[in-house]
């Protein structure tokens, strides 16, 4: 990685297969002193661009012969963490699937996040938070403050109360060395109705403005070490044509691009490559159900993770 060119990341697909780390002490100590962007870049350079989603859906709990309660969710999550730690760049627990079990479910999430942090495993809490600034400050403290029981390395945010309503989270992430992923172009087809609005072919759509705001934020925040703390969510299902038509330059964000939609939602490596184009080294490809369906045996989950990592190794690096 060139420190003079922080938008570029090392080629995740080339070279020898990433070395799995044992769960305890997975990351080098020096990396943890960096901000979220450089820490994620280092993890992706080492292990490839896979983010394993931890989505304990009722149907998966049933398929794993686990109860649909907080204890089942905890067993499920710990199995996934232990099976995949050191084999992927990050984990993305889906908060809703813990929250549906009330305080016991959230306590299970707290323990999962703490266990991952102790093992130097990067976590992205998929909470999609967003509110007026005063309330946003409380969400920011919950997910991004040092010492918070729910602190993760990053959290997903919804900008539909205005990008700047996220200010408390943007500021706190920068202070605590954590990150955010702001919804820009989501993987679901319904997202287009809102996110493409205002399209002028020159980045003027809602999504284009979110991308520009994230780029501005990172330009002000990032250091010579690499990506800024503000990432975007851009579905792997979005497609090159949409990105081109909206006039969006994803590479200009200079931050990570969380790419759900791979696997269960139908996108494959070709769709990731097409959607992200020259920004593909910034794509952190998230897959949940396709991998989780391999369980309940940890060895089978691990094999599914390794197969996905292998698939993603064919992604072309940025030109
Ligand atoms: O645009 C978005 C934003 C978030 N998600 C989340 O990602 C996973 C996808 O799960 P799969 O089983 O791999 O389809 C899930 O937690 C979503 O809430 C998304 O799909 N699209």
Automatic annotation (TrEMBL):
Biased segments, Pro residues type: 13-25
InterPro entries noted in UniProt: Aldolase_TIM, OMPdecase_AS, OMPdecase_type-2, OMPdeCOase_dom, RibuloseP-bd_barrel
CDD domains membership: OMP_decarboxylase_like (cd04725)
Catalytic residues, chain numbering: 128
HAMAP family per the UniProt record, alphabetical: OMPdecase_type2 (MF_01215)
Catalytic reaction annotation: orotidine 5'-phosphate + H(+) = UMP + CO2
Record gene name: pyrF
Pathway: Pyrimidine metabolism; UMP biosynthesis via de novo pathway; UMP from orotate: step 2/2
Keywords recorded for this protein, A-Z: Decarboxylase, Lyase, Pyrimidine biosynthesis
UniProt protein name: Orotidine 5'-phosphate decarboxylase
EC number of the protein: 4.1.1.23
Sequence segments annotated as region (Disordered): 1-31
Native source species: Tersicoccus solisilvae
Top-level EC class as recorded in UniProt: lyase
Keyword Lyase: yes
Assigned protein family: Belongs to the OMP decarboxylase family. Type 2 subfamily.
Source taxon at top rank: Bacteria
Gene3D superfamilies: Aldolase class I
Boundaries of every Orotidine 5'-phosphate decarboxylase domain copy: 49-304
